[in-house]
Amino acid sequence: MDLHDLPTPALIVEVDAFDHNVATMAAALPGDRLRPHVKAFKSTALAHELAVAGHLGFCCATTREMAGMAAAGLGHDLLLANETLDVRRLQALTTGADARITVAVDSAETVEAAARGGVGEVLIDVNVGLPRCGCRPEEAGRLADKARSQGLEVRGVMGYEGHLMTAPEDEKAARVERAMAKLTAAQEAVGGDVVSGGGTGTFAVNRWCTEIQAGSYTLMDTHYGATDLPFRQALFLWLTVVSVNRSAGYAVADGGLKALGMDHGNPTVVGGEVWYCSDEHTTFGPGEGGTLPAVGDRVRVAPAHVDPTVAYHPRMHVVRGDEVVDDWAVDLRGW
Amino acid sequence: MDLHDLPTPALIVEVDAFDHNVATMAAALPGDRLRPHVKAFKSTALAHELAVAGHLGFCCATTREMAGMAAAGLGHDLLLANETLDVRRLQALTTGADARITVAVDSAETVEAAARGGVGEVLIDVNVGLPRCGCRPEEAGRLADKARSQGLEVRGVMGYEGHLMTAPEDEKAARVERAMAKLTAAQEAVGGDVVSGGGTGTFAVNRWCTEIQAGSYTLMDTHYGATDLPFRQALFLWLTVVSVNRSAGYAVADGGLKALGMDHGNPTVVGGEVWYCSDEHTTFGPGEGGTLPAVGDRVRVAPAHVDPTVAYHPRMHVVRGDEVVDDWAVDLRGW
């Protein structure tokens, strides 16, 4: 199919950029040095491409993602890199899935939920500076003891330095080192051989984790794109211009707030300048030195934040040039 | 089912507030004085409640919403209050749906798409100040002639004063009057008896439209809630606290950017103060004079923007007090 025959709004993946991203990361962090984070793309079809590239362990943010990965035959080593108290969903996962299941825990309550949910293995989630989940580093050893006392195998620790993903390059390595010092200290108390953490923004400087949890690098967004990463923008929202106001100097394309994650601000129209987004529209001007498109023209829009953008869409259309070459269902949405 | 047995994150509708909102609007704008906008809630089950309240005509933002409403037996008078060039989707709609279908047009191209798509009736969409779709008021008559020359019935005009929805109360009526003067002037040139426009923020002051296109009033959000409207917050995201950091003074609940429209900023945790949202988490403090919850507690989160929030969810759970009394599928998502 020709890209111009695709009904809009549609999410497209430029496969040459995607392949570049996957190959670049696999060269830097081959095999199980990378544990790709499924939350960025929520697609078993995309995850399968990463397995082909050599990464067989994955991490997930929801039990739904875990169950879907297992059902797709990608359950070699699945980590729920998040806390849950939902014993029923854990039980459904551990009894129904043909998969190795590991779950993050950071409190007595989450340890108990894991044990009741039939989980065999856990990581102690340690807070390394991001104000989110994770126990205090000095509590990690005690929590590991508690987990073991409830019959859980403790594989090691996890700590996500999410607050440093887009830190200035000249500070990033030193700040990641300080964050990871907390994690490695916790690991000494916890035991186990897994030290899991990191992300797209720190993969190159985080030398302390045994495995890096990156996902955004596959598709990218303009937030990460503004940094010095060696990855290319592969994900675009593909829209049709449905209205043009030449006297006021703007055009309107047929996708907006319900097709784009907006927490990082406006997306970027390729060849234009965004005025604002509304539910089903993006209003944009021609940008400096550019011209307004015509009604019926198509435009590419680069999202500001990949994860909540993909979560709005039922599928991604894989394109090479103007040809649609594949279709990846976003089959891990919801909870 | 008890609300506390509902897996989280879940979108809940407090039915007493919803009923208040529906009754309040139906008293102000009974029957076809209101054309509820489906885009706010994307649910035929919710739309059915509005039909029971006496509103039989609806407007939609997508062909998907139009087709779903028709299939649900709610096709008495459906307006696509948006521009489209997608002839195939229009053809599928006009040949497949047992419904009265009217479509907004604002250009020669959209007139032609409507005609080729088998649409029988159109409204001329007029720009009344919002930088989005709509022809210039002085072009409306000529566009109506063009539509009629292509065999389309022109029912009248449409003009959405979206830029005035949350205008200061002491200016709102005068500014709406100026915007609507453009629309009524256009109607004189166009003919027809429909003047469609308005929304939740202007329903009380827009005396020029024959029908008001409001949808947000049913569920509400904190953006509209900050104004003087007589509607109550009926929609909440229902979350479980999965982690608490007492030394740092925050708690973490299990829903975030993939469950909330973020373009209007952070949501509001009832009884708390939001620090920030990430993909699957909301980090919040206790708020002034409050206390931190415990791991396992549930919290209500009021969204900042209703439409893109609902669009993330497969269903809404209808609750009265702590009892889940119904379940409304969000069956009109996607495109």
Describe how the helices and strands are arranged.
The structure is a homodimer of 335-residue chains.
Chain A: E1 10-14, H1 15-28, H2 44-52, E2 57-60, H3 63-71, E3 77-80, H4 87-96, E4 101-105, H5 108-116, E5 121-125, H6 140-149, E6 153-159, H7 169-190, E7 194-197, E8 211-212, H8 222-225, E9 235-245, E10 250-253, E11 268-269, E12 273-278, E13 281-285, E14 298-302, H9 306-310, E15 315-320, E16 323-329
Parallel strand pairs in A: 1-15, 2-3, 3-4, 4-5, 5-6, 6-7, 7-8
Antiparallel strand pairs in A: 1-9, 9-10, 9-14, 10-13, 11-14, 12-13, 15-16
Helix pairs in contact in A: 3-4, 6-7
Kindly describe this structure.
The structure is a homodimer of 335-residue chains. By secondary structure, chain A is of the alpha/beta class. The first copy, chain A, has two domains: 3-11 and 231-329, Lyase, Ornithine Decarboxylase, Chain A, domain 1, CATH 2.40.37.20; 30-213, Alpha-Beta Barrel (TIM Barrel), CATH 3.20.20. Chain A has helices at 15-28, 44-52, 63-71, 87-96, 108-116, 140-149, 169-190, 222-225, 306-310; strands spanning 10-14, 57-60, 77-80, 101-105, 121-125, 153-159, 194-197, 211-212, 235-245, 250-253, 268-269, 273-278, 281-285, 298-302, 315-320, 323-329. In chain A, the strands form two sheets. In chain A, strands 1, 9, 10, 11, 12, 13, 14, 15 and 16 form a nine-stranded mixed β-sheet that branches. A seven-stranded parallel β-sheet of chain A has the order 2-3-4-5-6-7-8, with helices on one face. The two termini of chain A are 33 Å apart. At the A-B interface, strand 9 and strand 12 of A face strand 9 and strand 12 of B.
